């Protein structure tokens, strides 16, 4: 549990810098017995649009990474490389938060409370225990909440960016499922990306190719792949060892599918040239999807909607009257549905909803259906649409493997498009924003010191 919690704090610590924590650091140092005259002055290491990154923020994030790898410090790159990697993440996070603010993206305190509760549940803690665990790491609980808040803001920004730019058609799903390269199942991958800057010269490409070769040589010489990713990769997940986790084969970029298909678990690919650089892939493992069986229900439905002339209370009274006729007078549910239901989808069919999985018609109806026995009619219940009555007709177990495969293929295509869309967005955001690194040792050798926004 401690390791899981530590990893969570690490991810937040270097991905989302606390906005006010830098100002607290001198006070924390003073509390440890250092006088204000003896405190080293904090300095700005980077200007990001109208914001800044302080050296104390960078130090804190770097220390969090080093603490995670305290047992295996040899897996970390040289300190100067590590500091550049972490600074890159802090810069990108600042830019995303600034852009979200410009778009008016907001997260409420209640949403942060729910995020805190989720973190506590994932770590099998109460919220009070989580608070104590955060404070034991030396971080203030307020800063932890701020970091969660910022993480939620960036998630909202991601959703807004990809929402209108990503769509998946039925023909795309058909093409994927019928493709010779399509392969069911999942693969666990890790990767090393060596970026080539946009507008790269021949020299830039040669430098990237040499770095990719050095990474491969290190792996062939016995270096752990994750350690090589930390040391050589330019990807945002380099400090996670390049671990991509489990992915469906249909979620893999087509350019890499052939290579992965011909690999065995443990194999490492050669350096593959892509539009943004060189990629080295390790196949960690693979597994086949199990047969998927789902519980389906068959039911009838009546909806009584409120309107300009029917109040919600009157709708409830009508639903109760229909319930009494169904239960006490044994009226036909199908007949009443045709005569009285306001559900345009089912009324003409006598309220017949067909066979469906539990929550296909919403969680409220799903909860009622699951509690009923076959042939039983629910008491009237309310949703935002109005008042409902449902009659459960049957229950069955259905093989939904093929249906699930289509849905997973659709999701995989959508995820791939969303990932590419947001990656393009971040590249454009980074290249068009004003970023000035004030400490020469922290600037990448292959990029200029400042970029002016258009």
UniProtKB/TrEMBL annotation:
Keywords: Chaperone, Isomerase, Periplasm, Repeat, Rotamase, Signal. The PPIase activity resides only in the second parvulin domain. The N-terminal region and the C-terminal tail are necessary and sufficient for the chaperone activity of SurA. The PPIase activity is dispensable for SurA to function as a chaperone. The N-terminal region and the C-terminal tail are also required for porin recognition. Its EC number is 5.2.1.8. It is found in: Periplasm. One of its GO terms (biological process) is protein stabilization. Chaperone involved in the correct folding and assembly of outer membrane proteins. Recognizes specific patterns of aromatic residues and the orientation of their side chains, which are found more frequently in integral outer membrane proteins. May act in both early periplasmic and late outer membrane-associated steps of protein maturation. This is Chaperone SurA. InterPro entries: OMP_Chaperone_SurA (IPR050280), PPIase_dom_sf (IPR046357), PPIase_PpiC (IPR000297), PPIase_PpiC_CS (IPR023058), PPIase_SurA (IPR023034), SurA_N (IPR015391), Trigger_fact/SurA_dom_sf (IPR027304). The keyword Isomerase applies. PROSITE patterns: PPIC_PPIASE_1, PPIC_PPIASE_2. It comes from Rhodanobacter glycinis. The keyword Repeat applies. SUPFAM superfamilies: FKBP-like, Triger factor/SurA peptide-binding domain-like. Residues 184-285, 294-394 form the PpiC domain. GO terms for cellular component: outer membrane-bounded periplasmic space. It catalyses: [protein]-peptidylproline (omega=180) = [protein]-peptidylproline (omega=0). It is an enzyme of class 5 (isomerase). Residues 1-22 form the signal peptide.
């Amino acid at each position: 549990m401690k390791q899981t919690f530590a990893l969570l704090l690490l991810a937040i610590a270097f991905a989302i810098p606390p906005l006010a924590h830098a100002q607290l650091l001198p006070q924390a140092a003073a509390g440890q017995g250092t006088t204000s005259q003896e405190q080293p002055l904090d300095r700005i290491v980077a200007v990001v649009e109208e914001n800044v990154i302080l050296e104390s923020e960078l130090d804190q994030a770097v220390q969090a990474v080093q603490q995670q790898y305290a047992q295996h410090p040899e897996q970390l790159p040289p300190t100067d490389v590590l500091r550049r990697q972490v600074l890159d993440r802090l810069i990108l996070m600042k830019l995303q938060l600034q852009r979200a603010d410009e778009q008016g993206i907001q997260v409420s305190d209640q949403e942060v409370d729910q995020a805190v509760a989720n973190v506590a549940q994932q770590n099998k803690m109460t919220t009070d225990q989580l608070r104590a665990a955060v404070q034991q790491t030396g971080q203030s609980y307020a800063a932890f909440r701020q970091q969660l808040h910022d993480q939620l803001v960036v998630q909202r920004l991601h959703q807004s960016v990809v929402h209108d730019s990503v769509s998946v058609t039925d023909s795309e799903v058909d093409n994927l499922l019928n493709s010779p390269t399509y392969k069911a199942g999942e693969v666990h991958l890790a990767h090393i990306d060596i970026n080539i800057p946009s507008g790269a010269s021949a020299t830039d490409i040669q430098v990237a190719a040499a770095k990719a070769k050095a990474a491969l040589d290190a792996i062939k010489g016995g270096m752990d792949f994750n350690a090589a990713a930390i040391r050589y990769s330019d990807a945002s997940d380099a400090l996670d060892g390049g671990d991509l986790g489990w992915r469906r084969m249909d979620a893999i970029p087509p350019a890499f599918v052939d290579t992965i298909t011909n690999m065995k678990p443990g194999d490492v690919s050669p350096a593959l040239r892509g539009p943004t650089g060189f990629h080295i892939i390790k196949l960690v493992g693979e597994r086949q999807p199990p047969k998927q069986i789902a519980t389906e229900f068959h039911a009838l439905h009546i909806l009584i909607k409120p309107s300009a002339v029917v109040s919600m209370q009157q709708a409830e009274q009508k639903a109760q009257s229909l319930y009494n006729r169904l239960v006490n007078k044994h009226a036909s549910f199908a007949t009443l549905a045709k005569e009285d239901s306001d559900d345009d989808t089912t009324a003409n069919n006598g309220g017949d909803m067909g066979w469906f999985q539990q929550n296909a018609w919403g969680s409220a109806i799903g909860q009622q259906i699951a509690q009923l026995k076959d042939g039983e009619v629910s008491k009237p219940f309310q949703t935002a649409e109005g008042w409902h009555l449902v009659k459960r007709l049957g229950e069955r177990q259905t093989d939904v493997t093929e249906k699930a495969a289509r849905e997973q293929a659709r999701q995989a295509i959508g995820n791939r498009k969303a990932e590419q869309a947001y990656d393009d967005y971040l590249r454009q955001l980074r290249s068009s924003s004003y970023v000035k690194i004030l400490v020469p040792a922290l600037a990448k050798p292959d990029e200029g010191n400042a970029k002016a926004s258009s």
